[in-house]
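An example makes the point: we let one protein speak, the chain in one-letter code, the fold tokenised, and here it is:
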Amino acid sequence: MSFTDSTDSGSDRPVSVLWGCELSSARSSCTFRVSEEWRCEQQLVLRTVCLGEAARDEFHVLEVVAEDGESRAPVPLATLKPSVLPSASLAGVELTPPVTFRLRAGSGPVYVSGQHVSIMDLSSDEEEEEEEEEAAEEPPKKPPKGSGAQKGGAAKKRKREKEEELNSLAPEGPPPAKGRGAGRGRKAAPKK
């Protein structure tokens, strides 16, 4: 399943796709890579890490290894235990691929989820956007001086018609008296 979200901002358009992986004793590592042919900025924005329903009551340690240049030291992201902390939010963790997730301790399953964000350069669309912006920047043509008075008269007439319509919908007669039970469908208590 994937979810795509796009937003325009000048010539760059971020596109995000839902991403996730499962780590367990059968598969203790997962590497997030991006194809070399993609010539745009890539980010992996992590959201949550959680244990599966079959996870044993032991510590599960998730670590990440960012493969950027020479530094490849593993960094622990979360330590989970079903009876204490079955899930954790990883909001604010943004990684540049390639990145490897490893289950350092525990048998899992551990689920990691996030968003793969690509900022695509749309230089061909940029020319079209510039033309649209120029058209939007042109000032609107002013109507002739005599037509302004007619518009004001039509607006006042519509306003009067609307007020008359609202008045016709209002109930005839005085508003219900305030006090105990008034307006709730009960009869007023007889006066003694």
Observations:
- The radius of gyration is 32 Å.
- The beta strands are 4-6, 12-23, 29-32, 41-51, 60-66, 75-80, 87-89, 94-95, 99-105, 110-121.
- The first strand starts at residue 4 and ends at 6.
